[in-house]
Amino acid sequence: MSKPSPLADLSLGFRHAYLDHERLTAQLKAWAENFPALCRLTSLARTPEGRDLWLLTIGPEPDRVRPAVWVDGNMHAAELAGSSAALAIAEDVLRLHLEPDTDTVPDALAARLREVLFYIVPRVTPDGAQAVLRSGRSVRSVPRDERVERGRPRWTIGDVDGDGLALSMRIPDPGGELVEAPQYPGLLVERTLEDEGPFFKLYPEGTIEHFDGKRIPSPFFLGDNPIDLNRNFPWSWTPPHEQIGAGPYPASEPEARGIVEFATAHPEIFAWLDFHTFGGVLIRPLGHAPDAKMDPEDLAIFRQVEEWMTEHTGYPTVSGYEEFLYEPDKPLHGDLTDFAYNQRGALAYVVELWDLFKRLGMERPRKFVQLYERVTRADLVKLAWWDRDENDGRCFPPWRPFDHPQLGRVEIGGVDPRIGIWNPPLHELSALCFSQAQVFLRVAALAPRLRIGRITRDPVGAGMTRVEVEVLNDGYLGTYGLPSAKKLDFNEPVYATAKTSDTCALVDPGSAHQTLGHLDGWGHGLHTGANLPAYPGTRGSTNAAWASYLVRGTGTLELRTGACRVGFVTTKIEI
Questions:
Q1: Per DSSP, what are the bridge partners of residue 188?
Q2: What's the rounded Cα separation, in Å, for the pair 351 and 142?
Q3: How confident is the model over 273-289, as a mean pLDDT?
Q4: C-alpha to C-alpha distance for 116 and 396, rounded to whole angstroms
Q5: Domain 450-574, what fold?
Q6: What mean pLDDT value characterizes the chain?
Q7: pTM for this prediction
């Protein structure tokens, strides 16, 4: 019998369940404590409720600067599948180091991946996710409201009947917009002219602040938790009256601020995956302009990612601007992916996990985002039967009568979207995690990779030697990462710094520091015409540079070359 995998022994079931904060923390600590040479667990921030925003760093020598990738999930409180997918990527990367014979990815990829540092934040909103897991209440990102302007009537979501959950309430009303579907009793669907009733109003379970006994305010998904963390990042941030959920100022929230501060201090992050739910789609830049305005070399690289996403998950890839704006010509502001791509120069994208629309058999419209508004009564009925037959009836629990302290007789229950709508059913979670890891491990393998090539030593007389050192990049991406990132101030070119032993010296001390410039990678994305042999030829030696030194005497020349974006390599040359 083969020896059990130490990784399997440590798993707390995140591929088959959605972990609460305590269990997620225990999973991360188990890896960090059992594999200290590979894992480091740190906190990016502390939430107002006292929970850590955990960052797991995976790779030997975590302080050694080298190309790195970032994965985060669960920025929106109910989107729990992102945490599981991020943890699955972490486990698969650990397996590459600990169990190299495991057939996770092809050997050529695995060798490159072992040289990449992984930064993984499985849960961006610990407080919000905990509120959703414990009560089922609707929380966009964080369950807090620090506004001082609290005079208007509004809904405060919470458990009113004492069962520990905060679901939905329905009230019979002749002017109600909803009616029970004849094909599935208890399921509320949009009312039509042909329906005879009874009709219902639907509200979140909770109470009304400043209720006058007559007028019921309309529910709003940010009514009592006004921050959307994915509108709080600094790139193109605009205030709440222009961008709902933006927060009082950029990175005002500790969760967003912790991420911004870390990313700013780590320019080596060249790829960035932000997990959300639901939809079954990859959303890539640009978020504020059409593809015609995008760097064409960037776009070609995203086409490579698109091919992998289609192959391994079946998800389509769309432009954030062209297919995922909620309102025409009104880009989102303060988005994390926009920050990562435009401000940090990363190959950044969102994956909306869980292809619910495809499961319902819906046809993709001209713009993918229109799927969210085109769910029909028939689609909802199909979803309800699927929920009963394949999801243990989690999404549509029965209605129960209750005497509400403000509204009188209501019914509570009806809708619990946590598992089956907001997130995939538990029995499909493992396959989803596997397929997403397959894609992102290939993205991580695009890393630039510095190497020392040829070294020549030519005596030139008078006890002097000409030393020339070739510096190579044999990675897919250039040392700048994405081509458009060259313009960013922090994206410095590769340089070389030399020092000699006591028995020799540089003839020109000023040559100790030499700027070599950026080095191209060998990859260029897809559909660039490179495969067409009409005009054979590739780029010249743009992936290489030479550092040259004139050294007097014999001894050792130590050369350190690299840049903050790509990391450094060091070599010692005997003269």
A1: 180
A2: 21
A3: 97
A4: 44
A5: Immunoglobulin-like (2.60.40)
A6: 95
A7: 0.96
